[in-house]
Amino acid sequence: MLTHLRPAITLTLGFTLLTGLAYPLAITGAAQALFPAEANGSLIERSGQILGSALIAQSFAGVGYLHPRPSASNYGATPSGASNLGPTNAALIATVAERRAAYTAENGAEAPIDAVTASASGLDPDISPQNAAAQAARIATARNADPAAVQALITAQTKAPLLGLYGEPTINVLQANLALDAAFPLPK
């Protein structure tokens, strides 16, 4: 019986060390060497203070800021996820209608789809250029800035699709809001 158990135990220990220790350490080391910012969460730091991550959405509710996509998890990274409500669910339809009415009232513009629907993770850090453009007039008014200058700054924050082919143009909300703070400080 020991002749059958010894190879099983040896293989179990060997593969545990290989896949449970060596492989994760190798991948972590490669990520730290090749992509250190991304491997450490793409944290945005100013004056020694961490302001957020370029990869994870956070709530911006002030009128002088771009607002991110809605979040089913209230921007919490631990319970992240979608609402899991189907497109015919009455609660989802009512929530989208409420968000659309609030967006239109706040921005005076029709709400793009990403302004009224949450992403699958609830933590999507990007919005569409259409969503950002619709918020520009509100932001310019709150910051006592020229609307064209605010729109130009927002447009400059647009990231093209990957390789010009994959995905849609996006604007990272945190990075755009930091650029707005630098260019057009909020009045006190």
Write out the strand line-up for the largest beta sheet, numbering strands in chain order.
3-5-4
The largest β sheet comes out as: 3 strands, antiparallel
User: What are the low-pLDDT stretches, counting only 5+ consecutive residues below 50?
Assistant: none
Straight-line N-to-C gap: 80 Å
Order of helices and strands: HHEEHHEHHEEH
Write down the Rg: 23 Å
Mean pLDDT: 90
Q: How many beta-strand elements?
A: 5
Q: What proportion of the residues is helical, as a percent range?
A: 40-55%
What structural class results from the helix and strand content? Answer: mainly alpha
How many DSSP H or I helices?
Answer: 7
Strand content: 5-15%
- What global shape is seen? elongated
What does this structure look like?
The protein is mainly α. The protein contains seven helices and five strands; from the N terminus they run ααββααβααββα. It has helices spanning 2-34, 36-39, 90-107, 113-116, 129-142, 147-156, 173-183, and strands at 43-46, 49-53, 126-127, 158-159, 170-172. It has a three-stranded antiparallel sheet with strand order 3-5-4. The N and C termini lie far apart (80 Å). The mean pLDDT is 90.
State the gist of this model:
The protein has 188 residues and is mainly α.
Features:
9% strand, three-stranded antiparallel β-sheet, 188 residues, 7 helices, mainly alpha
Secondary-structure topology with pairs:
Blueprint: H1 2-34, H2 36-39, E1 43-46, E2 49-53, H3 90-107, H4 113-116, E3 126-127, H5 129-142, H6 147-156, E4 158-159, E5 170-172, H7 173-183
Antiparallel strand pairs: 1-2, 3-5, 4-5
Helix pairs in contact: 5-6
